[in-house]
């Protein structure tokens, strides 16, 4: 088994920015020369998340609305009492979605569904520079 670790830098526009990172991951995967295995994508930071979604305008509007219903901005968060930085809801939302995802690949191609893309979601209240760590594990 071969393990390769790479990183991608992503600049977000701020809260609810969803960035399709599928092309960058596919390129790194092809360049790795690993044919079959799994790739784990992990975002460093506690106010961003990684998931898959159909990257289309309707869902890009629906997803933030869903998060607002589950973890609204306008309620009390203990995080605010400690840090006073206005992003308690960002931490809760990121924790719900999660910081990583593992996706299998075969013949150096991600085994995603036809309409499925990998996205990084910025949940912090401001734009951020994010570091995404990719760990590719498999066989040549």
SSE blueprint:
Blueprint: E1 2-11, E2 18-20, H1 22-32, E3 36-43, E4 48-53, H2 57-70, H3 78-83, H4 88-97, E5 100-106, E6 109-110, E7 117-122, E8 129-139
Antiparallel strand pairs: 1-8, 2-7, 3-5, 3-8, 4-7, 5-6
For the termini, the CA-CA separation is 8 Å
CATH superfamily: YjbQ-like
Q: What would you say the CATH architecture is?
A: Sandwich
Task: State the helicity in percent bands.
Answer: 25-40%
Task: Quote the average pLDDT.
Answer: 96
Task: Please give the largest β-sheet.
Answer: 5 strands, antiparallel
Put simply, the count of helices is 4
Please provide the ordered H/E string of secondary-structure elements.
EEHEEHHHEEEE
CATH topology: Jelly Rolls
Beta-strand content: 35-45%
> How many domain units?
1
Gyration radius from CA atoms, angstroms = 16 Å
Q: Would you state the CATH class?
A: Mainly Beta
Derived structural class: alpha+beta
Strand order of the largest sheet: 1-8-3-5-6
Using DSSP, what is the number of strands? Answer: 8
Q: What is the 3D shape?
A: elongated
Q: Which spans of ≥5 residues are poorly predicted at pLDDT below 50?
A: none
